[in-house]
Amino acid sequence: ADVVGLLPLHRWVSGLNWYAGVSMRDWVKNPLWDESRDRRGGEALMAYAHYRALRGRSVMVSTFLRDGNLSFLSNDVATYLLQNGIHRVVVGHKPYGDSPGIVRMPLYVAGDVRGTDVPTIEIVCADTSFSDTRAADNRGAAASEVLVYVDGSTRSQLRVHGTLRDGRPIDFRTPVLSSTPDVLEHPVFESGDDYIGTRLDDGYWVKAKVVADCSDPTDTAAATESRARDATYVAITARGYDVTMRDWSSTEASGTMSGHGHDG
After folding, report:
1. Residue 242, H or E segment
2. How far are the Cα atoms of 72, 76, 181, 264 from residue 4, in angstroms, in the given order?
3. What is the rounded distance in angstroms from the CA atom of residue 201 to the CA atom of residue 193?
4. Of 195, 175, 179, which Cα lies nearest the Cα of 235?
5. 3-state secondary structure of 20
6. Which residues of 105-139 are buried (b: 16+ CB within 10 A; e: fewer)?
7. pTM, whole model, 2 decimals?
8. Residue 241 phi, psi dihedral angles, 5° rounding
9. Which H or E run contains 71?
């Protein structure tokens, strides 16, 4: 994507809020169709939620999915976000399985990698409205909560927890994101999982960590630790509306991960 010459992000957001405010006031003044049914108040804001009406230029219906699957941001877009103080984008569109899809990637700028290979941009696609199409509500047992913990500065951490469509619980955090390299300890932060948000060599994305069952009273401490360490993850890939998910173990990591890359 070509982002050269774009307005600073705060001006763009301010313009969108102005657009929304003008449209809402128009709707309050004229909530019904006119006599010819050609116009009604607030139609500009309603059009903003329609892809064709805005010729594809609406953040409401745009998506980070490409042909249904997650993808890395372009280097230009990632650079623009970071330069405007944005490390994480959380969106609700489009549907992507029974738990949020996550992309984590480093930022490559002029040949330099900010913080070596440590991801500095995080994308969360949290639309799970088609978690289980066999269920009457298209969701079934699936439900997830997306939380972002902050410490009052530029540091923040993502946590996702909930239930998959098969009833298994998930709960994980990603590593803390910060605009400064010295991430200080803080009570709201915990250790993050480096596997979440990575793309495997076969095109699957690691997107959820299943809560390990460490409740067996006959287990030794070593067995409990081993079970927690060799965690089960859910990996997903999609093409169009055809979504495929499978379990993936951290023991498979060697030789199966393409890492936190970028698409150019």
Report:
1. strand 242-249
2. 19, 8, 27, 15
3. 19
4. 195
5. helix
6. bbbeeeeeebeeebbbbbbbbbbbebbbeeeeeeb
7. 0.80
8. -100, 5
9. none
The shares of helix, strand and coil residues in the chain, as percent rounded to the nearest 5, are: 20, 25, 55
Residues 118, 85 contacting (CB under 8 angstroms): no
Q: Collapsing DSSP states into helix, strand and coil, what is residue 29? A: helix
pLDDT tens for each residue of the chain, 264 residues long? 455 567 888 898 899 899 999 999 999 999 999 999 988 999 988 888 887 887 777 777 778 888 888 988 888 888 888 888 888 999 887 888 899 999 998 765 434 444 445 557 899 999 888 888 899 999 999 999 999 999 877 789 999 999 999 999 999 999 988 766 555 567 888 889 999 999 998 999 999 999 976 555 555 555 445 555 558 999 999 888 888 999 998 777 655 555 555 554
The answer to whether 98 and 132 are in contact (CB under 8 A) is yes
Contact criterion met (CB below 8 Å) for 87 and 156: yes
Hunting for tokens 């393409």 — which residue is that?
258
Q: Cα dihedral angle (175, 180, 183, 188), rounded to 10 degrees?
A: -70
- Are 47 and 56 in contact by the 8 Å Cβ rule? The answer is no
Q: Tell me if 236 sits within 8 A of 101, measured CB to CB.
A: yes
Contacts of 30 (CB under 8 A, 6+ apart): 39, 40, 41, 42
Structure tokens, 192: 């993050």
Question: Residue type at 132?
Answer: D
Among residues 260, 202, 259, 197, the alpha carbon closest in space to that of 233 is found at 197
Strands 121-125 and 88-91, how do they pair?
Answer: parallel
